[in-house]
Write a structure and sequence with these properties.
about 400 residues; Heat Shock Protein 90; five-stranded mixed β-sheet
Length: about 400
């Protein structure tokens, strides 16, 4: 039950609801208490009137109608009405020496003794608690106004929450500065300042990385031109392949920079897994990939992914598999809606989660491969599992 009141607004609603309920119970209780007290006082008053009438009749032999009028009582003299009331009391088995009941919304007293028989109408009515009702309405309205005032004060918190959500989704072009003087405004202004600082840092980082990549493009282009002048065709082809590889790496770094800065628009389309594997092998730019990679299609299936990013994932896994394979050979198995990349080698020395960290210690590279894999798979709501079995490392994309 209490799980429903986790939010601040729910707690405020609960507090105000309980306050209104308690106020209503107090008001109704006070009205009922007054009614009970009035009934007790009225009964005592009616008995006193009855005793006075009896004693006055004993002394004077008459009914003191002036006294009855002063006490707001009236003697019922209409014979037809008296007969009807008498019949009514007899039906209700209240025709006694002294009885009180309501007849047609009138409070009737029966005084029946050896001296006289009277039917009296008690005209006294309980006073309507106007003052108490007015106080209750004023307090009720004040509570309602206070509730809406507090809820209105919390509205900037909802706006700030939406801005934070937008920021977490990668949109840095937000502003949540506030000109108010409450605590929510202070939090909003501090967050706005933090967003501005992060935006400036990211822009400077992007500018720095793009400047480096741009500067690297120039020597690579010159190197490709120089390699074209080599007389030996074999060396020319090798150098050309090296510069193509460097150019491809720079393009990959550009993609990584966009992914990590949340500045990448996915182009999701359906692709067969076998086609994605073929595209990933092309990215490896290795000679005779058929001799290094054994692709087994047991059950081909279709996935909706960004072709460029997903082939980069598989390419990095294939590249790692070849690097750390004992026999420089890897096996790729497509089956049952999962992709397995298998190589023979030593088991990972640390948990797989440690290798997801950027620039993880690596002898053969920068330690970015699995970090890139994890980042791209998260965008596609996929995950990477690892199993070591019978001397084989098995990486599974699910």
């Amino acid at each position: 039950m209490f799980n429903r009141f986790k939010s601040l607004k729910s707690k405020i609603r609960l507090v105000f609801s309980l306050t209104i309920i308690l106020l209503s119970v107090l008001f109704i209780g006070s009205i009922k208490y007054d009614d009970i007290k009035y009934e007790e006082h009225n009964e005592i008053h009616e008995r006193l009137v009855s005793h006075y009438l009896y004693n006055h009749y004993l002394l004077h032999g008459t009914i003191d109608e002036a006294y009855l009028e002063s006490q707001n009582f009236s003697l019922i003299k209409d014979k037809e009405k008296v007969i009807q009331i008498e019949h009514y009391f007899k039906e209700k088995e209240k025709y006694k020496k002294y009885a009180v009941d309501s007849y047609k919304l009138q409070r009737i007293l029966l005084i029946n003794n050896d001296r006289f028989k009277l039917f009296l109408q008690n005209k006294n009515k309980p006073k309507y608690p106007f003052k108490r009702i007015i106080v209750f309405i004023i307090v009720f309205l004040l509570i309602i106004m206070l509730y809406f005032w507090i809820i209105q004060s919390l509205k900037p918190l909802s706006v700030l929450k939406n801005k934070i959500k937008t920021f977490s989704e990668g949109n840095l072009d937000i502003s949540c500065a506030s000109d108010k003087n409450d605590e929510i405004a202070e939090v909003a202004n501090e967050f706005d300042h933090a967003v501005t600082m992060i935006r400036e840092l990211l822009h400077s980082r992007q500018l720095f990385l793009r400047a480096i990549m741009h500067e690297l493009k120039t020597p690579i282009a010159k190197g490709r031109l120089v390699s074209e002048m080599l007389p030996d065709e074999r060396n020319k082809k090798r150098m050309h392949s090296i510069f193509e590889r460097l150019n491809l790496l720079i393009d990959e770094f550009a993609k990584i920079e966009k992914i990590t800065s949340k500045n990448f628009k996915l182009n999701i389309k359906p692709y067969k897994m076998s086609d994605l594997i073929e595209g990933s092998i092309d990215l490896l730019m290795t000679d005779n990939p058929q001799q290094l990679i054994d692709v087994q299609i047991r059950q081909d299936y279709q996935v909706e992914v960004d072709f460029e990013l997903f082939t980069l994932v598989i390419k990095n896994l294939l590249d790692n598999g070849l690097k750390y394979s004992k026999d420089k050979h890897i096996k790729v198995v497509i089956a049952q809606n999962k992709l397995s990349i298998i190589n023979k080698g030593e088991a990972l020395k640390e948990p797989l989660e440690n290798y997801f960290k950027p620039f993880h210690t690596s002898k053969n590279g920068l330690g970015l491969g699995l970090y890139i894999v994890k980042s791209i798979l998260e965008i596609h709501t996929m995950r990477l599992n690892y199993i070591y079995k019978d001397g084989e490392n098995i990486f599974i994309i699910i």
